[in-house]
Design brief:
596 residues, Rossmann fold, eight-stranded mixed β-sheet, seven-stranded mixed β-sheet, 20 strands, globular, TerL_ATPase, TerL_nuclease, P-loop_NTPase
Length: 596
C-alpha cells in the first residue's frame, strides 16, 4: 500500500514533506499505523497482509509470514507437535499496552504495531500440543535502528519477571558492555516508574529490579562480568549482538536454562561491522531455516529479519519499511532529506546501509540463485532411464576434515542436465555441526555418508565412482588439481579418463554463466536432493576486473563443495549439450550476470 508511484527521493523538500504526510495518512486510514490498541490480535492478519503484498516486507519476512501460515495449516495434523494459542499470544501484548507506560516523549500509552503483534504473538502463541509450553526457545529480531527495540525489550522483561506464570524467574538484560546493558536496565526502571500500576508491584533499586510476588528479578549483565556461573535464566534479552566477537556470554546463558520449563532468549539487533561473529551466523541460520521450510531447520527458533533486499533499494524510501517496520511512526521527511545529504559521503552512506537498512555490505559479491529460481528446477526423473547413459564426473575434495563431494552430470535430450550428487563428512565434523538434524535427513536419503574418525578417506570417492561406472557410462572425470593428485592417479589406474579443471575466471566463467542460464530456464534436474539444494543456496559470486565470475561460499560455514564438483563436470558437459551435428538444440550464448 503506497501513497504514490513516484519515488520521493527525486522530490524537492516541499515535495518530500507532502509525500511523507500523504504516506502517513494512507497508513493510518487502512491500519498500517495503529493509534489505538487493536481490539484483536493481529499476528495472523499481519502475516496474511505481508504474503499478499499489502504490507511491504523483506523477502525474509515474507518467508517468516509464510512459515507462520504454513504452520497454522499443519497444526491440524495429529503428528505435528505445535499449535497456535491466541490467548497466550495476546497476553503479553495486552500487558504491555495496558500496564506499561512510555518513559519518554509526549505519549501516555504504548500501542504495539501490527509487526510487533506478529513477533510477540509468534514467540508466545506457538506452544506444544502435549504440554502447552512455548515452542520457541530463541528469537532473532533483526531491525533497523530507532524501531522501538528498547521499549519492546523493557515491556517483555517486566511481563516475564512477574506475569508469565514462572516461580522465581530470572530476567537478564545482556550486552557486550556493562554500559549498554545498564541502558536497557535504566529504561526498564524508568518504564516502571512511569506506570503507577507497575510501580506498586515492582521494587527497583541500583543493582536489580525485584517482583516480590513471584520472587522474580531483572538484572543487567554483560560480557565484561567475569563470573556468570550459577545464573538460572528464564528470559534473556541480548541487545545489539552485532558487537559480539564470540559466543562466550551467549553460551553461558544458554547453558543456564537447564532447570526452566519454557525459557526464552531474544536477540534484538541491527547489522554491524563484525562479519565473523555470532550475528552473521544467526542470520545465515535464519535465512537457511526460512528458505528451506520443509527441512524443519531450527524449528524452535523464531526469526524476524527486516532488511532491504539489496543495497539499490536504499534510494527508494517507499521500500525503507522493509528494514524499518516502524517507518510510518518516524520523522519520514527528515529521514529522506538527511539521507539525500549523507549519501554523498561514502562513510555516512555506509552507516545508513548498515544501521538503517540492515545490510552487511559486500561490494564484490552477489547471490547466485534465488528461491524463485530454485522452484523452476523441481523436475524429477526416473533414475532407471539413465542406465548406461553418457555422463561426466566431477569431484571436490576440499579438506579431509570437512565436506567432500563427487557428482555425475548427464546431458539430457531436451537440453537439460541431470546432477547426481554424493557427499561425505567425517564423524568428528558431524559432531560439531550446528544442524545435525539436517545431516541426518541427508544421510537417510542417501545423499551424504558419515565416515568414522576425523577425516574422509578418499577411497570412498574412488569406490563411489567405481560403483557408478557399473550403471552409467562415465566419459571422463573432471577435477580441481589441488589436493587431488593421489585420488586422480588411483582413478586412472582404475581405468577412468580424468582431466584437470584449472580454477580460474577464464576456465570457469563461461560454464558458470551457462549453469546459471540453465537454472533460469528450469533445466537443471537433481531430483530435489536437499543437500544439492543447500549447496546451490550457499553460492555467491566473485567478480574480477573484466566482469568475469567465480563461485565462492557465502561464509565459512556455508559449504559449496557439491556445486564445485558439478561445475567441474559442467566444463565438459557443455560440449555434450552443443552437439553441432545433431541439430536438435544449441547451447545459448553467454550473457553478462548483470542481465540477470
Amino acid at each position: 500500500m503506497k501513497s504514490s508511484n513516484s519515488n520521493p527521493i527525486d522530490f524537492d523538500y516541499q515535495g518530500i514533506v507532502a509525500w511523507s504526510d500523504n504516506y502517513i495518512k494512507d497508513q493510518k486510514e487502512w491500519g498500517g499505523i495503529l493509534q489505538e490498541a487493536s481490539p484483536v490480535i493481529l499476528t495472523t492478519i499481519y502475516a496474511e497482509l505481508v504474503v499478499e503484498g499489502s504490507i511491504v516486507a523483506s523477502k525474509w519476512n515474507i518467508l517468516a509470514a509464510k512459515r507462520h501460515l504454513n504452520d497454522l495449516k499443519r497444526q491440524d495434523d495429529p503428528n505435528y507437535p505445535w499449535k497456535f494459542d491466541e490467548e497466550k499470544a495476546w497476553r503479553p501484548i495486552r500487558f504491555i499496552e495496558s500496564k506499561c507506560k512510555p518513559s519518554k516523549g509526549d505519549f501516555d500509552k504504548l500501542v504495539l504495531q501490527p509487526w510487533q503483534h506478529f513477533i510477540v504473538g509468534c514467540m508466545f502463541g506457538w506452544v506444544s500440543k502435549a504440554t502447552g509450553k512455548r515452542r520457541f526457545r530463541e528469537s532473532l529480531i533483526f531491525v533497523g535502528r530507532k524501531n522501538g527495540k528498547t521499549t519492546l525489550e523493557s515491556g517483555l522483561a517486566e511481563y516475564m519477571a512477574g506475569f508469565d506464570g514462572e516461580n522465581g524467574p530470572n530476567v537478564y538484560f545482556l550486552a557486550n558492555s556493562q554500559k549498554q546493558s545498564r541502558i536497557l536496565y535504566e529504561e526498564s526502571k524508568a518504564m516502571i516508574e512511569a506506570s503507577p500500576w507497575l510501580k506498586e508491584r515492582f521494587v527497583p533499586n541500583v543493582s536489580e529490579i525485584r517482583y516480590p510476588k513471584t520472587n522474580g528479578k531483572i538484572v543487567a549483565m554483560s560480557a565484561e562480568k567475569n563470573n556468570k556461573d550459577g545464573e538460572n535464566l528464564h528470559f534473556g534479552v541480548f541487545d545489539e549482538i552485532h558487537e559480539y566477537q564470540d559466543y562466550a556470554l551467549i553460551n553461558v546463558m544458554k547453558r543456564s536454562r537447564g532447570t526452566r520449563e519454557q525459557p526464552l532468549i531474544v536477540y534484538i539487533t541491527t547489522a554491524g561491522s563484525v562479519l565473523d561473529g555470532p550475528l552473521v551466523n544467526f542470520i545465515e541460520q535464519g535465512q537457511d531455516t526460512l528458505s528451506n521450510y520443509e527441512d524443519n531447520i531450527n524449528e524452535r527458533t523464531f526469526y524476524y529479519l527486516a532488511q532491504l533486499d539489496n543495497p539499490n533499494e536504499a534510494n527508494d524510501p517507499r521500500l525503507w519499511i522493509k528494514a524499518n517496520p516502524n517507518f510510518g511512526l518516524m520523522q519520514i521527511a527528515d529521514m529522506i532529506n538527511d539521507y539525500k545529504t549523507d549519501r554523498k559521503s561514502p562513510r555516512e552512506l555506509a552507516d545508513w546501509v548498515t544501521k538503517q537498512f540492515n545490510i552487511f555490505a559486500e561490494t564484490d559479491e552477489m547471490s547466485f540463485i534465488t528461491p524463485e529460481t530454485l522452484k523452476l528446477n523441481e523436475r524429477v526423473i526416473d533414475l532407471d532411464t539413465l542406465d548406461f547413459k553418457d555422463c561426466v564426473g566431477g569431484y571436490d575434495l576440499s579438506d579431509t576434515e570437512d565436506f567432500t563431494s563427487a557428482c555425475l552430470e548427464f546431458p539430457l535430450e531436451d537440453g537439460s542436465i541431470f546432477v547426481l550428487e554424493k557427499s561425505w563428512i567425517p564423524q568428528a565434523r558431524y559432531d560439531r555441526d550446528k544442524n545435525p538434524e539436517r545431516i541426518r535427513e541427508w544421510k537417510k536419503n542417501g545423499e551424504i555418508e558419515i565416515i568414522p574418525g576425523n577425516y574422509v578417506d578418499y577411497t570412498y570417492v574412488l569406490d563411489w565412482f567405481k560403483t557408478m561406472s557399473d550403471k552409467y557410462n562415465i566419459l571422463k572425470i573432471r577435477f580441481d588439481p589441488a589436493k587431488a593428485l593421489r585420488l586422480n592417479k588411483e582413478l586412472e589406474e582404475a581405468g577412468f579418463e580424468t582431466e584437470k579443471v584449472r580454477q580460474g575466471f577464464f576456465t570457469l566463467g563461461g560454464p558458470l554463466q551457462n549453469f546459471k542460464e540453465l537454472l533460469l530456464d528450469g533445466k537443471v534436474v537433481f531430483n530435489n536432493q536437499k543437500i544439492f539444494k543447500w549447496y546451490l543456496n550457499n553460492v555467491r559470486l566473485r567478480q574480477d576486473r573484466n566482469n568475469n565470475w567465480l563461485p565462492t561460499k557465502q561464509s565459512q560455514s556455508r559449504k559449496i563443495d557439491g556445486f564445485a564438483a558439478a561445475l567441474d563436470a559442467h566444463v565438459s558437459v557443455i560440449d555434450l549439450l552443443v552437439r553441432p551435428d545433431d541439430g536438435d538444440f544449441e547451447m545459448p550464448e553467454y550473457h553478462s550476470f548483470n542481465d540477470f
